[in-house]
Amino acid sequence: MNSDLDTDAAAARALFQSLEGMEGLHRPEPAPAAKAQRFPGQAALTKLYPGVLVAGTIALASTWLSQHYGAPVMLFALLLGMTFHFLHQEGRCIPGIEFSSKAILRFGVALLGARITAGQILSLGITPIVTVMIAVVSTILLGAFLAKRLGLRQGFGVLSGGAVGICGASAALAIASVLPRDKDGERDTILTVVVVTALSTIAMITYPLLTAALHLDQTKAGVFLGGTIHDVAQVVGAGYMISPHTGDVATYVKLLRVSMLLPVVFAIALLAARMLPGGRGGAKPQLPLFLVAFAALVAVNSLGWLPKAGADAATEVSRWCLVTAIAGLGMKTSFKDVMTAGWRPVALMVVETAWIAGVVLVAVEWFL
């Protein structure tokens, strides 16, 4: 049984503790007991979900804005993401933002394979296939060559040439994921996506007028549009603006360019590891798993094992993943960093765009 003395001692201890708190003195708290995980991966999920949630919310807002105002969704995601750059400077969102801009990006690129079948590519005939291969490879080589002459990093020339030559923002993200990491890499990726999206939108408006001025028939116009416009959505918009047949041909040619993503990204990964600054010298590069998944989906879809509903679902998930990744990449980059790039990167991408248009136009006029 407690005595009065014990009661007084306890009251005095409580009084002194309250006085410590009033004076601002720090009282060490007992360490909280470690909570048992309710399911595997709970710790990782808890760490990642704030940043992923923010990136997903930006992707959702960008999609709504794109649907209501008709501007490219990737551009909205980039600009909105960059306004939330402060979330990547400190705080709980950093791990999730990094995860969105890397892991979710690669998953989205892998799912692009669900769009393509070997039958679609072979149905075009040999001339469009050869034309696309020459146009893509020559545009990347031109970018690497001119980048050094303009005082830019050679890696930027490869990145911008691949984005212009293959499929715009999606290709830029895929190529950036295998290039050597450096302090300017993320800024260059953001700049490439912004410029290639703007150029693609301009091309969607002007190229149908160009095909009419050159008196190209519907098939030739489809090959030209699919072989030159950067983003898939803009190709579809420009093609069906002319006719359903032109839209179908343009879409198939564009998917042929998308299929070049696998060999081109792997070749860039191989060469970057050996030749570009920041690479691993003579180290043997490994085939990125997302490219393996991309190739597997192309094969499965070509064999007819992937139902149309599954292919459509994979395409939609891929779109959401890429928009989320763009939002994450935007949050990692500040407007100030992008503005320091100057006019040379923009000039390079304009020249690359004019080059691929010229190559495809010559092929269409003389060999198709």
TrEMBL record:
GO terms for cellular component: plasma membrane. The chain crosses the membrane at residues 48-65, 71-87, 124-146, 158-178, 190-210, 222-243, 255-275, 287-305, 347-367. It comes from the Bacteria. The keyword Transmembrane helix applies. It is found in: Cell membrane. It holds the Pfam family Cons_hypoth698. It is a multi-pass membrane protein. InterPro entries: UPF0324_pro. Keywords: Cell membrane, Membrane, Transmembrane, Transmembrane helix. Belongs to the UPF0324 family. PANTHER family: INNER MEMBRANE PROTEIN YEIH-RELATED, UPF0324 INNER MEMBRANE PROTEIN YEIH. This is Sulfate exporter family transporter.
